[in-house]
Amino acid sequence: MFWGFLKVCKNPFDFRNPGNFNFCGFLFRKLYNLALILTTLGVGITSNIIFLGTGGDSYVVGKQVRASGGIVLQVGDDQFHIDPGPGALVMAKETGVNLRANTALLATHNHINHCNDINAVIDAMTYGGFDKKGVLVANNTVINGSAHHTPFLQKYYRDFLEKFIVLEEGKRVGINNIEIEAIGAKHSDPDAIGFKFITPDYTLAYTGDTMYSVEAIDQYDGANVLILNVPYLKKDEGKHGLCKEDAVKIIRRVNPRLAVITHFGINFLKADPLYEVREIQKETNCQVIAAKDGMVVNPVSYAVEQGQKTLYKYAKEEGVRVQEYQKQVAEKAEEINEMIEEKQTRLDEP
Ligand SMILES: [Zn+2]
Ligand SMILES: [Zn+2]
């Protein structure tokens, strides 16, 4: 019986012979149609947060104890790449992220582990300027530099982009149906910012690098998902970033559906982030997770409309998918060929 069924299903995708009723093919077509209808109705817009790096200090990043390629946020067809530090290209490959799909590239400040690979990512996004595309949203220092710092962004690569936007605290920019707001950050780069993404399904706030500040906390309000850069375990380890105690205060106040702790310094890693983050969860009564390199989180599971019951279900079952590195098939040459052909046709037109 089982073998008989398999035989029927031998080639479920073969629709060339309509004379033979193919049960699996029939089922496949029905499911495909259902998926199309759901997509049209706007149900099931895919959304992922992918961590291309979780390292937060020079020791951790320098030895790549944790990677430093930034964070990728996918909302439907849009892809936002935030803080592309050293190794962004390698981590994109390792985690199966196609940088060509970047709608926008974002950088919170002009530090090496946040924007070292900004030019490399622009080059990858645009095939070396062959296909000018994408938006860069960054703080002032990344684009214009400051009295003491030259900007990481080079003019040569800046010109590959469709647009670049300097964002300062409180300013907003809309990209497709997502609104991005710059939130304040107090850091050694005085123009540093964080980002708030207001999507149709949820609001995500990313602190960027900042020390604790009462004023900044207000700006995280309404975030369903909160990503915090917490390099320090203890307060006295450094003054330019958050420590565990600060994270507890912020999470308690914001009360998000999900808080993700990332950007770990060496002492945090030595102490074991899993244990420390569990402590934060106990103290805040919120769902809190420690980011890992390559981790994929589905933020829709944590959106406000889903309710606590769903949150619990997803947290247990599928809200946090830790993705094993997938060796991705090398980017298809077809894509380049198609583009060349398209451009060629356009040039040929009278
Ligand atoms: Zn940093
Ligand atoms: Zn920094």
Short description:
With 350 residues, the protein is α/β, with parallel strands linked by helices. The chain is built from 14 helices and 15 strands.
Structural key phrases:
350 residues, Metallo-beta-lactamase, Chain A, 2 domains, 14 helices, 35% helix, globular, disordered N terminus, binds zinc ion
Describe the structure.
Helix content is 35%, strand content 21%. With 350 residues, it is α/β, with parallel strands linked by helices. The protein folds into 2 domains: 31 residues; 272 residues, Metallo-beta-lactamase, Chain A (4-Layer Sandwich). Strand 11, helix 10 and strand 12 form a beta-alpha-beta unit. The structure holds zinc ion (ZN) (2 copies). One zinc ion binds next to loops.
Averaged pLDDT, please? 83
Computed structural class: alpha/beta
Query: Which regions contain 5 or more consecutive residues with pLDDT less than 50?
Result: 1-20, 303-332
Number of separate domains:
2
Record the SSE blueprint.
Elements: H1 2-8, H2 23-40, E1 47-53, H3 58-62, E2 68-75, E3 78-82, H4 88-95, E4 104-107, H5 112-115, H6 118-126, E5 135-138, H7 140-144, H8 155-158, E6 163-166, E7 172-175, E8 178-184, E9 193-198, E10 203-206, H9 214-219, E11 225-229, H10 244-254, E12 258-262, H11 266-271, H12 273-284, E13 288-290, E14 295-297, H13 307-317, E15 320-322, H14 333-348
Parallel strand pairs: 3-4, 4-5, 5-6, 10-11, 11-12, 12-13
Antiparallel strand pairs: 1-2, 1-14, 2-3, 7-8, 8-9, 9-10, 14-15
